[in-house]
Every structure is written in C-alpha cells, then in structure tokens.
Amino acid sequence: SQTIHQWPATLVQPVGSPLSLECTVEGTSNPNLYWYRQAAGRGLQLLFYSVGIGQISSEVPQNLSASRPQDRQFILSSKKLLLSDSGFYLCAWSVRTSGYTGELFFGEGSRLTVL
Amino acid sequence: AQSVAQPEDQVNVAEGNPLTVKCTYSVSGNPYLFWYVQYPNRGLQFLLKYITGDNLVKGSYGFEAEFNKSQTSFHLKKPSALVSDSALYFCAVRVPDQTGANNLFFGTGTRLTVIP
Known about the structure:
The complex is a heterodimer.
Chain A: E1 3-7, E2 10-13, E3 19-26, E4 32-38, E5 44-52, E6 55-58, E7 65-70, E8 73-78, E9 87-94, E10 105-106, E11 110-114
Parallel strand pairs in A: 2-11
Antiparallel strand pairs in A: 1-3, 3-8, 4-5, 4-9, 5-6, 7-8, 9-10, 9-11
Chain B: E1 3-5, E2 10-14, E3 19-21, E4 24-26, E5 32-38, E6 44-50, E7 56-58, E8 64-68, E9 73-78, E10 87-94, E11 105-106, E12 110-115
Parallel strand pairs in B: 2-12
Antiparallel strand pairs in B: 1-4, 3-9, 5-6, 5-10, 7-8, 8-9, 10-11, 10-12
C-alpha cells in the first residue's frame, strides 16, 4: 500500500532562518506531488505541484520554493523565513494519469511557527 | 476558474440528530467534487467523491453527499451524528483536464461540533 511521510512534524524557527520540509511517498511510482498551506486552521492554499522530477509549478508568488530531486521526494524550502510563513504545511500525492478521477492523499502535516 | 464555497464556518448538532454541511461550487465544465475531514493537527482524510452517475454518493464513516447540478451544490450529510464526527470538513473541486495535474481547490472549511 501507499504511504506518505512528512517531516519534521513540528518546527519553530526564527525570522530570517532557512527552511526545509521534506515529503516522501512510498508504494507508488510517478506520482503527482503537492504542497498546501493551511493558515489559522482553516482554508487550504495550493502552493506548488509537480508532475515529474524537476517539474515544479507555483500557484502563488511567495517566499517559498519547492524542489523534486527524486520521483517520490518533494521538498519545500525557504532561504529566509518571514513571520507570515507560519502555518500548517501539508504534502499530498495523487496518481499521475490524464483523466484520473480520484482523490489526493495527504500526509500528516508539518506545523511551522516563525518567531 | 473553479471555486467552492462553504457558507457556514461552524455547524453545531446534537448527537443522534442528522447533520448537513453545505458546499456550493462554481466551475466551467463538469466538476469532480470531494469531501475531506481533518482532525486537530492531522492531515486530511478522504470521505467521498462525486465523479459521475448517481447523485447520491456514499462514503466513509456513514457519510453521504448529494450532488445537485441545478443548484451547483454538494452537501455532506449523515443521518445520525456522533460526538466523534466533530472535526473540520472541507469540500473540494477539480475540473478534469489533460494536464494530469489533478489540482484540488478547497473551500474554507466548516467546523462541525456534535454536542453530547
């Protein structure tokens, strides 16, 4: 079966420090990968998605970047964190097939607090 | 562009009573609609989806949802609420395309509280 792992689960960082959140998927190949941010425990905002290694699409301009160095690895980064980067970050994967009708599968999330 | 609206931030219901969490959508094309549930400090768990076919969709934990094309709605329902159903519920929409991106766009969430 497929599993998705995110780490770290919790992170407290000072303003201006770098960030690296990692997500890996097991049990599947060629997945689509996604990073969402959830602010204040409510709505989810799609930050980045990837349909293949090295292919990153950004949905919103921001202080963050994403990379996909391997097929099942998705990394969210920042060179200098801002207070507004605080939030709950969720990684997700889906099958990569044109016309796929199924759902996204989410990790357990990484809570980032920027002080 | 596609979007979903969840008009209620909070829904309170007594245990044993039926519950409804509302969702309306706006898309250009035939939508794929989803419901997810989130417990505190956890990821999202898939409940059910509508792709095509029967307008009444049954999902996990006794939940069901009714697709209404004329009202562009996809309300989540359960005949008898449990205290353990208390959580944050998200409606999401996707319009099928050929890119394979499968991006889901989420509503702002509705917090359901089931009162014992």
